[in-house]
Each structure stands twice: as C-alpha cells, then as structure tokens.
Amino acid sequence: MGITTKTLAKLAGFGPASIRRVHGVDFSGALDSGKRTWIATAEVRKGALEIKNCFPARDLADSGRSPELCLDALCRFIEKETAAVFGIDFPFGLPRQILGNRSWPSFVRSFSRRYQNPEAFRRACLDAGQGRELRRATDWESQSPFSPYNIRMYRQTYYGIARILAPLVRRRSACILPMQDAIPRKPWVLEVCPATVLKLHGLYNMSYKKKTREDYRARERILRRFEKLGITYADAEKLRSIILANSGGDALDSVIAAFGTFQALQKQVLYASEGYIYA
Known about the structure:
By secondary structure, the chain is α/β, with parallel strands linked by helices. The protein has one domain: Nucleotidyltransferase, domain 5 (2-Layer Sandwich). It has twelve helices and eight strands. The chain has helices at about 35, 65-80, 95-100, 105-110, 110-115, 120-130, 135-140, 155-170, 195-200, 215-230, 235-245, 250-265; strands at about 20-25, 40-45, 50-55, 85-90, 175, 190, 230-235, 275-279. Strands 1, 2, 3, 4, 5, 6, 7 and 8 form an eight-stranded mixed beta sheet that branches. It starts with 20 loop residues before the first strand and ends with a strand.
C-alpha cells in the first residue's frame, strides 16, 4: 500500500533524521549529456548532508557521453538505489493549458509517442500556448527561470520525461513525487531546481559557470554558504576540489540539487498533475 504525500512527514525515513541516501542530479539533455549531467551522492548524518561523491554521469556503469548511453545508465542507477531519494533538475510536467484533461501518468506514458523528438515537442507546446511560453503554477511560485519548453530548457524537459520518468513509470520501479505515492523500498524521485535554491538563499545573481578567476571565487562563496547551512564531506579536500574545478558549474549544481532534496524531505505538497519543484 502506498503512502500519500499528505502523510510523507510521518513516514519513517522521510525527514531530517532519514537514513535514506540523497542524490542530487544536475540534468542535461545536450548531445554530450554524459559530460554535463553531474550526480552528487550523499547521506543524512546528524542533521547534516554528508557528500560522499560527485561525478559526471558518464562515469556510471555502461554509460558514456551521448544521451542514449548516459540517460539509460542514469535510469538504471535510480532503479538500483531502492533506499534513496533523487532530486533531479528538469521539469516533471507541463502547464495545465497544454496537459488538458490528461492525468500525469497517462501524459508520461504517451509522451514519446506524442512528441517524436525535442524539436517536435517544443513546436507542439508553442502551438498549444499560441506562441507563448506558459509556466506551471510551481514555476511561478518557486520563481524558476524558464518555462518547461523555453529554448534553453526544452531538450532537458524532453529527455528527462522521455528517458527517465517514462521508463520508471512504465516499470513501476520508482515513486515520482508528489504525483505518486511514496512507497518504502522503492527509490523516490522529485524535481528540484538549483536556481530556485540559490534564490532562496540570496545567491542567484552571481556568475559562477565560466573559467574566470571571478567565477571560481563565486563557486567558492556559494559552496561555503551551503557548508554553513549543513553540507559536510566524506573527504573534504578531494570533493571540494572536484566541485570547484568544474568550471561549467554542473558539479556545484548537483550539490545544490542534493541540498534542495535534503530540505524537501520535510515538505508536504500536492501538485499532482503539473509537477512540483522542491526547494
């Protein structure tokens, strides 16, 4: 029997003292997504989030740089982590005006049949929105930067739903929150947005995704702030070096995603059709 999102806070293992593993995933739908998708793995210990590892998705078993290899490997990784919570950075749904009366599970299962590729997906959404980039209720409330089918986001949305959520839903191998019940002994997957987490902590308007010395210092400043908020490391010297050296900011974003997931363990929300950004 499942556990509804209204009772998540009462679920043993779903809260600040959880022994569940936490994975933050900075997701990419780029042609080299194996390089650009980063995963921060962590455990909750004594009220803090201890980062155990941080690595690109191409390092997963049987993975690679391409979306085909990388995203299949990420999906398998999620399925194996039956005592973990995953916070992943892509939209889990579309605005109600585009969804229509379809249920969220039906929308996800039929997604690849309805939209043959990312470009067809974006065109269809723009047509349905009469040329406008509509947003979900959660996008407005969390102040996320883009519509799910914005030019900077649509590939991320497309591959996230088609290659991650759809297989997990079809195989019933994970619980996608808050649209599905949280079932023990299955991985839980929820949507996070590092930009939203940064906004919550007054760190959003900073350039940190370039190779300049100023951007490196910005990554240092952001990381120090989250360390004060409750991030620790299994090996601080090694992991801080990996996170800060990644000039694209993907490694840091995966850590921010993990922290957002850590915070979300206390939330009780129900946006069970469009999706919900946890932060």
